[in-house]
Amino acid sequence: MRHSQSHVFPETGVDNTQAAVDKRLDPPSKFKAVLISLFRWLIPLGVILLGWQATSLFLASDNVPSVVEVFASLQTHLIHGDMLHHLMVTLLRVALSFCIAMFFGVMIGIVMGAFPRLNEAGDSLLVIALNVPALVTIILCYVWFGLVEAAAITAVAINKIPTVIVMVREGARVVDRDLLQVAQVFNVSPLRCFFKVYLPQLYPFIMASARSGLSLIWKVVLVVELLGRSDGVGFQLGTFFHFFDIASILAYTLAFAAIILVIEGLVMRPLDRYIARGNYNGGGPSDNHRYTGGL
Amino acid sequence: MVNLNIAIERKSYASNMPDVLGPLGFNVAQGEFVSLVGPSGTGKSTLLNMIAGLESIEAGSIRFNDQLLKGPPPCKLSYIFQQPRLMPWLTVFENLRLVMPDSAPFEIEKMLDKVGLKGKSDCYPKQLSGGMQRRVSIARAFLTRPDLLLLDEPFVSLDAPNAQRLRSILLELWLEHKTTVVFVTHDLNEAIQLSDRVLFLSSSPGTVLLDKDIDLPRPRIDDVHFQNWKKHLLSQNPGLLEGQVSDVSSESFSRGFI
Known about the structure:
- The structure holds 2 protein chains of 2 kinds.
- Helices cover 79% and strands 0% of the residues of chain A.
- Chain A is built from 12 helices and no strands.
- Chain A has helices spanning 2-8, 18-24, 27-59, 67-79, 83-114, 116-131, 134-145, 149-173, 177-185, 190-228, 233-242, 246-275.
- In chain A, helix 4 (67-79) crosses helix 12, helix 5 runs antiparallel to helix 6 and helix 7 (134-145) packs across helix 10 (190-228).
- The relative contact order of chain A is 0.10.
- In chain B, 32% of the residues lie in helices and 20% in strands.
- Chain B contains 8 helices and 10 strands.
- Chain B is globular.
- The chains are: A mainly alpha, B alpha/beta.
């Protein structure tokens, strides 16, 4: 019982002992724990799919395709259509604008968090930038730079940068001065100090903004594609909208949602685990290194 | 190796705040182990931070080998803080590596062995007990082979046997490296046991009340001689540990001033 618990809720246990518990686990009980967590994940999904299928059968409307129809459409698009091409194009746009937004957001966030005067000066600008609708930046970028790839990517990045700034700035504000003093006293080189002492304290904040960023960016990318590109998931959705092809719209949505799930599992989760090494949680209540420097 | 000359006129954190340090002056010879003892809030840590270049010197001067301190200290300096202050996202090994990037892995392992942390190099600080984390900070301080070592009540809030073990590790390493040491504590026993000389600071703003050489033979254990020495000191200077002395001897006051 204890074993399966520590596996299902790894975040509630003391992570120090996690490795030790894993070692003690004999293979059958570990397998069982994985099975249990898989079932917990599968049951809600099954309920939703069943409910969907039942609703569509009950309504018997062309506008509410059944699960079977959607998966059939997904199969056709994957094998006979050019779904893979459009998915890849969209994914590339997401990746590019994500990287650009994160880079500038983190840089500006660090600067604003580190220098209170700059922060005051930029604060109202930031509030405005946060509240400019995505549609406005997209239209303006297309009008000013033309209907080109660079305009599309810039528009998406501009939409995301302010939210990254806000989160990273919070992290830069609460950076542990005590640890920076250690680097100063021991004469650690500025570059090493930045990457080994300063930046790790921001990782939890950068990670949180990356998480929320990915979901926001791919939504904005679709709008950008709908308005001014001739390929990508957004463009395809626009086309299907003209033909009222609801099954295809849902098939594309499912396909891209699946990709995001895979990214979450293969990139975000491992990154999370890497950042939380040493049980570091970004200065939460259990971090005893903070607020302890006495006179 | 380094000797220190300290002549502070005053120190406050802001112009409208009361001074934390008053006029205060003393010398620390090369390889000398000097303790600063005083009640809490007398600016002992502030003084250490000024020596380490972490706090600005407003009025007065600090000299390293007759060289005026401006900005970072002109010698290899190590600091053992009140809290271990290890990077929680780095392993013990990486924490030591951080302050000595060029050191060979075996040197780090040897240093860890010396402080009794053999085989712990891959642990993260959170996986270690408080005493072990302090040992890592001691290892980190000595790994750089410092000319000057500053300690800010490093053994506070440790249980007695653990603190005693760490004190003897500190002494061993000090004897081996012959570092100049400035040690801040409020525990007189600790100061007498470890240091060559002890300076008593007054309550805020801190000034030197008494500058006393400790002429007890080493290694010092808490025996009758030890207790007699301490009793004699305290009977001669009532109120010393509270930071008040009715008769401040002019001899101790002028000793370090230029």
